[in-house]
Design goal:
Two copies of one chain form a homodimer.
Chain A (H helix, E strand, L loop, with lengths): L2 H8 L3 H9 L7 E2 L5 E2 L2 H15 L4 H9 L5 H30 L21 H10 L3 H11 L3 H20 L8 H17 L5 H13 L1 H8 L5 H14 L1
Antiparallel strand pairs in A: 1-2
Helix pairs in contact in A: 5-9, 8-9, 8-12, 9-12, 10-11, 10-12
Chain A binds a DNA duplex (30 and 30 nucleotides) through helix 2.
DNA sequence: CTTGACCCTGACGTAACGTCAGGGTGTATC
DNA sequence: GATACACCCTGACGTTACGTCAGGGTCAAG
């Protein structure tokens, strides 16, 4: 069949089929003398597979890899990808929470450029600079008020979850910082901060990541979960924020 | 301060600051004679606000609108945006579920190009064509087997959730199809199909949307929730799939 | 032989920047 | 005063997954 029918049957546009041809993801099964693309059922079946992975959010380049290398471990790819999906969902949950808190006036649409996340809540150099710079603003007062309003139980549970995340990082020591399971933990950490403190943008997160190894106090606190945990977190955060 | 310091303090890159200047999102507070950008604290505060909205996923163009029009209803924007976030999260939950089912071998990485979603499970023209085309394949048999394995209770609860979603659409009749609350329902519907039937790509979804008004049986079934519900669903799906 | 439906290949646009390349500015040092 | 070096600038192209023309062949019907 010609391109129009193939497009109609699968729901994609003709442009998409030509694009997939060009990037080598799906070549037509044949061509007429006049250069018309022809697709057969095998081609359409391959397209179905492509669309399945695309729907899951795989980039097209990776889909091509998966489908062209026969030895590719598809289950492993799926498992890793699932972790990315979970991480993204957790991040969204943090944002939803942030939006709700902002609507209720519990958040000020700004943020403090330092970590008050129970690591040990001492101000380091970075935080001090931020405090000097933003200390006099309404945003600062607002945020102080909010965190001050947390009850002791709330704080305890927040720190407990933080410790859980540290422990999870500690368990992954030895893994590469860019592995999906590690990256998923970074997303969870970011969501944790966003939910409990302030809008943790990736810029903030990157700044925190640097502190975790640069500042003794932060590092020691994190490494209570095991030596090298802070280093892994820091490296993983760097990778996470680079994209 | 000059651009480098501003970038360091806020965590964004210089390139980003120049870009925001160019697109009119954040102009520097001043310029030196030689054309160097200068930023003061007001500018940095504005940048904080920008980054807050950016983190929530607002497009830069909308952030500019929000911040430049004093009469803009920020709470309304946040409320609408929250619905988009929720919709996206639900979609991800559907995909996570799909990935897990695939890993367990309960899914075949393909899909049936027709809706078996309890609407009334009769094959329409579109479905018939798909059946003719894919009917003999393993994928088809596999999927039949799977849905056949659903117990009666499972089916009942699946259909119940479908009815809930129809009712939610019915409650929004009169709203424009592109409103975020309506769009959020579309995402929920897609996630429902993905969770309970097959990988519902946007191409599939678009095909279903057309059926809902084109095919009497589907339309009548949906309109049990109220006349005009199918039309709204169909329109909303069309908008949803267009992007 | 003309119409109309269908096909093709560029080429530009999208969002939000990253990454050079090529060149000017500012200040400290030799 | 020349040089070194850090810092600043403006293009311009690359990225992802296509959408949207523009300009021009192909094919069957009338």
């Amino acid at each position: 069949m010609k391109i129009q029918e193939a497009a109609r049957l699968t729901g994609v546009t003709e442009r998409t089929l030509r694009y997939y041809d060009r990037i080598g993801l799906l070549h037509p099964s044949g061509m007429t003398e006049s250069g018309y693309r022809l697709y057969d059922e095998d081609a359409l079946r391959r397209l179905q597979q492509i669309l399945f992975f695309r729907e899951l959010g795989f980039p097209l380049a990776q889909i091509r890899e998966i489908m062209d290398s026969p030895g590719y471990d598809m289950n492993e790819a799926l498992r890793r990808h699932r972790l990315l999906l979970v991480a993204e969902r957790d991040r969204l949950n943090g944002l939803i929470d942030l939006a709700e808190r902002t609507l209720k006036g519990e958040n000020d649409m700004s943020f403090d450029a330092f970590d008050r996340s129970g690591i040990d809540r001492q101000r380091d150099a970075y935080a001090e600079e931020a405090r000097r710079r933003w200390g006099g603003t309404d945003a600062y007062a607002e945020s102080e008020k909010k965190t001050a309003g947390y009850g002791k139980e709330k704080w305890a549970s927040v720190e407990e979850e933080a410790d859980e995340i540290f422990a999870a990082f500690a368990a992954l020591r030895g893994h590469a910082p860019d592995e999906p399971d590690v990256q998923a933990l970074v997303a969870r950490w970011q969501a944790h901060i966003t939910r409990n403190y302030y809008a943790c943008t990736k810029e903030i997160l990157a700044g925190l990541g640097q502190m975790y190894t640069a500042d003794e106090r932060f590092m020691q606190n994190i490494d209570r979960a095991g030596a090298g945990t802070a280093q892994l977190m820091s490296d993983a955060i760097a990778v996470y924020c680079a994209k």
